[in-house]
Specification:
This protein has about 500 residues and is α+β, with helices and mostly antiparallel strands. The protein has three domains: about 5-305, no CATH class; about 315-430, no CATH class; about 435-510, Orthogonal Bundle (Arc Repressor Mutant, subunit A), CATH 1.10.10.410. Helix content is about 40%, strand content about 20%. It contains 16 helices and 15 strands. An eight-stranded mixed β-sheet has the order 5-6-9-1-10-11-12-13. It has a three-stranded antiparallel β-sheet with strand order 4-3-14, with no helix packed on it. The N and C termini lie far apart (about 80 Å).
Length: about 500
Amino acid sequence: MPAFEPVIGLEVHVELLTRTKMFCACPVVDPSGAEPNRAVCEVCMGLPGTLPVLNQHAVELALRVALALRCRVPADSRFARKNYFYPDLPKGFQISQYESPLASGGVLSVPSGTLGAVPSGTLGAVPVESRERSVRIRRVHLEEDTGKLVHRGQDSLVDYNRAGVPLLEIVSEPDLTSVDEAKAFAGELRSLLRTLGVTSGDMEKGAIRFEANVSVRAPGRTALGTRTEIKNLNSFRAMVRAVSYEIERQGRLLDAGREVEQETLGWDEARGATVSQRGKEDAHDYRYFPEPDLPPLHVDEAWIERIRRSLPELPEARRRRLERDFGLTPARAAQLVEDPRVADYFEQASAAAPAVAPSRLAAWLTGELFALLHAAGTPIEQARLSPLAFGELVAMVEGDFLSPPTGKALLQRLFQSGGRASAIAEAEGLAQVTDVASVDQVVQRVLRDNPDQVRQYRLGKKAVAQWLFGQVMRQAGGRAKPGIVQERLQAALDTAPSETLGAVDQSRSGA
């Protein structure tokens, strides 16, 4: 099969964090817990005689994103009616932006640490160079969300609670040339949106949804192939699997001399395949025309500058600062910055434990603490273990006050119940034994109690030393520093008196 080069563009739909809907005063409710069709009114249902009123906070959140993506923001943009029939679209059209979007012409830089080789078996799977990838942003515009269909057997029910919720659509140029790049771009965009505080980023609840435009072409060609659009991908895993499958599918069609049809596809997770939904519409199919009930949206320079000054430190800048000021590797910095709340936790813990190497603190955070958070399904900002307590615990382990096994066990206790490591360690006598004289006492006692093993070691069975090490650690209650135990045990074995061998021999002859 000839190799084909994938060309991918992403359309990202983002539910904005507003209290009310885009064009009415209905509250935005959690779709997983709200009773169906309770957050609705005449406006979001599109009943005759109603007029939409634009949500100013939604515009401000959208402007934060546009400025962070370095887009051009014109003074005026317009809303339009996008006409199509679907059961979860109560008005029979969607208020969106078309010819005059809120912003356009931006760019998102994807860090090199998040790029790598595409999984084997994917067409066009070649390692991506270690570099920063700039992906162009075509447009950023506002629109309203649709309702939600719930399928039960042969019946389909409609919940309109989500209809009218503010959506931000971010459309990339077709600059992505592998599944790996598409995933890295999506992850970086999600990190940016969460840092800006414009969305929860909860993909399981549909706060961010991807639509992928996919085509393939022969290497070296510049013309784009016929594209298909995969709708409503609500996880990174689904996006990776769906785009990988579609690249393979299109490659097989072209290799067999057949044409790729322009169409809209869905992703069937159970089958692991894309499925046709309808022929892909072009802009004229939606019969766009200016929304007659909304005036042009005017954004003056003072408003833009006020929002620009309010922007937080963005992920790209924060990664560089963590690498520069904390000495973290690019990969570790990217791992922390992926969720701004994790990066905040790290910096607070680091301030509480200035004697600990930041690289060690980050290793504990992304290793031991991440494992506990994942197992409990708890976001880091809701953890009972405060950054101060976490930093103190790591400092006690790294400073040899607690042994690593004791520190890990204590971390689990603090994660479950809160508290401070220093208080528990003092109350329960958990401090690590680092006094050489105390360790020597335990070593000598173990050697006296186990003369047969000492004799075996002196006769060349060196593996016995590991068993004796375990005995010393057990008698020390697991609190002795392993390095000191190893050193003192080795010294004692190498200088054990020869009488030990004689005593063993005599005991055996007497038997």
